[in-house]
Design goal:
With 220 residues, the chain is mainly α. It has helices at 3-13, 19-24, 36-72, 79-158, 164-219.
């Protein structure tokens, strides 16, 4: 048996004075006794205090018994209580998962954008370099062509008096060689430019494919 039960039994086994008994209690009169009015007044106050204490004791005893009963037979949570508790926990888990997914999506989109931007920059760099190289080759070919034509014209002028036909042939050959040089330079430069453009397109396509795969994975 618990200590509180022992104490309650000990109190209950003792004769208890009720507030009414205290208030109505009379005493034998003595020659030099105390004032009966003051005694009655004091006893009334004591009776009121005892009544309040008794009321509090009854209330506490009832509360203790109720709590002990709850401990012996705990009440099972209702369906609504369970749903409310699970709902709050589920909402918390969902909010946490949504936050994590949003963070992953943001970082993946930033990474995909960075890959695409890097590919575009590399493609532009390669295209610019190819165009610059092609321009250099064309300029060099033009210079060689001009030099050949000038040399042929000089040769033609030197022997013009006695070898017009030979000079004309030499001039035509020089012009033909110069045209071939220019054509080869044009073809090579266009090929390099097209190759650079194709490489750039492939890099952009690959970067876009990576970005689409990342976004597709996030959408699952």
């Amino acid at each position: 048996m618990a200590g509180g039960d022992v104490r309650r039994l000990a109190v209950s086994s003792s004769p208890k004075l009720t507030p009414d008994e205290i208030a109505s209690r009379s005493f034998a009169k003595a020659v030099r006794g105390v004032s009966e009015a003051e005694v009655r007044s004091f006893l009334s106050r004591v009776a009121e205090e005892v009544a309040a204490i008794s009321e509090r004791e009854d209330s506490l005893r009832s509360r203790i018994e109720s709590l002990e009963e709850q401990l012996r037979s705990p009440k099972a949570p209702t369906d609504q209580e369970l749903l409310t508790a699970l709902g709050e926990e589920t909402a918390r888990v969902l909010r946490s998962a949504q936050s994590a997914a949003e963070d992953i999506r943001t970082r993946s989109e930033e990474r995909a954008a960075a890959i695409l931007k890097d590919a575009e920059e590399q493609s532009k760099t390669m295209r610019d370099a190819a165009e610059e190289a092609a321009t250099t080759q064309v300029n060099s070919a033009n210079e060689i062509s001009s030099a050949l034509v000038a040399a042929a014209e000089e040769t033609s002028a030197a022997i013009q008096s006695g070898a017009t036909a030979a000079a004309t042939s030499t001039l035509e050959t020089a012009e033909r060689d110069a045209a071939e040089v220019r054509e080869r330079a044009r073809i090579e430069s266009e090929s390099e430019i097209e190759q650079a453009r194709q490489t750039g397109r492939e890099m952009l396509a690959e970067a876009k494919a990576v970005r689409e795969r990342v976004l597709a994975d996030l959408a699952r």
